[in-house]
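Exam revision sheet. Question 4 asks you to relate a sequence to its structure. Input first:
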Amino acid sequence: MNTEPTESHYEKLVSIINVLGDPETLKILDKAKAGFESGKVTVREFKMTSRKYYRSLRKLNDADLIMHFEKGYKLTSKGEFLHKLLFNDVSTYLFADQSLLDPLRMVGNRTELSLVDNYKDLTKVVETAIEKSKSEILLATRYLDMAVVQSIMFAVQRGIKIKTITSEKVDFSGFIKLLGGFVKSFRPNTFRFLVGGESNFRSGDIPLSFMIIDGKIAIFEIPNKEFKVAFVSIDKEVVKILSHLFHEIWSRSRTLHIQSQ
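Answer key, C-alpha cells:
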C-alpha cells in the first residue's frame, strides 16, 4: 500500500493552512471550542469589523471546522482535532522553555507523548531532565536507581527543591548505608536531605513510578514487575494529572525517619 502523500494531500493541507492563516480566524476557532452565539456583541468581543468576522466565519464553516447550532457556532469533529493540535500540542512546543525539550529529543521525534522502551535510555532521559531542572522535582518511585539518586543529590546542591515518595517495599535505610562514604562526600545540606530529611522523604503505596520536573515535564512508567515502557511528556494536562496524583499520595504517606550510619 502506497503511503506517500499525493498531490491532493498537499492541496488539502494548503487549503487548511490558508483557512487558518490569520489571527482573527484562529480566535474564532478557539472561541468555538466552548461554543458562542453569533451577533453584534460577539463581533465587538473579537474586535473585528463585521466584514472580517463573517468572512472568517464562512471560511471556517466551508472548511467543516465549525458548524451552526441554535443561535451560534461550535467545533465539528475535525475542528476539535485541529484545535487540540494547534492550541495544545503545537503551542506547548512553540512556547515551552527549549531546555525542557532536551529529554524528548533523546527519545526521537517531539510528540505530545514520547515513548521510551529501553531502561538505559530512560535513565539518561531522567538524568537529563534532573540536570535541566530549575526549581522543583517531585519523585514517586517503586525502586531506587543509583544514577538517578546521584543526579538528585547534585540537584539538591544546586538548590533545587525535592520531594520524594518511595514505595513501602524499598529498603531506603539500607540503600543509604550502601552509599556510605559517597554520600558523606557531599556538602552537609545534601547529607541532611538524605539523613533525617523529614520534609523531603515519605514512604507510601506507589501505583507507578513517575517524576514531575518544575511543574512542566512528566516522566512516568507503565506499572509492571520489570521495566517495559515509559513516557515523557510536557503536555499541560498530563503534568497536571500526575502532579495531583503525587500530592494525593504524599498526603496519605508516612514520613521517613532515616538514621545516619
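Marking note for examiners. Residues 106 and 194 are 30 Å apart (CA to CA).
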